[in-house]
Fold:
Amino acid sequence: MITTQQIAMWADRLRDIAAQGLHWSNSRYDVDRYRAIQTVAMTMLAAATDEPVEALEPLRATVFSHVTPFAVGDAAVIDDEGRILLVQRADNGKWALPGGALEVGETPAQGVVREALEETGVACQAVALVGVFDSRLCGTPSRHQLYQFVFLCRPLADQPPGPASHAHEVLGARWFAEDALPADIDIDPGHVTRIPVAFRTWHDRHAPAFFDP
Structure:
């Protein structure tokens, strides 16, 4: 059975094709055709997400003109006691690793450290790559395909936690022991599989980083 997530992924593929075409084409006729494909992608996504297509129109020049999958990152901040720092997302109330979209001009490791500080007020340092996860394969509900970088991070003892600059994005933050995590139903779907991989890296720094074959 075709799911709305599958339709969204098809729409995202068309988005990328259209964005590539608009980026490289010098033909007025090809530009018109790629814009038409872009419109089809927006219409499909609107149908998959039950949103009016008009609400997506402002994204035509930004999101829908973006070439390649989107890069995001998450910080698996684990302290010396083996507790992991999770945030409760404001949009769905689920627990998740702190993280978000990576920005131009920063490395993935710098991005996850920034996101952790913004959402929790906890300063940390990236110490190992947990893995690179494809959003389509790890359960992340997303309009678009994401490459999700997860880094093992350690909190900086010489920098006590401060106020979170992006506290509006989360309902709160808590430390959880590995054997006392929230129930899977209370964890954001894309993080259910990634948190155990983060703990594997914490237990064994020599463990190979995860990637989707």
Remarks:
- The chain has six helices and eight strands.
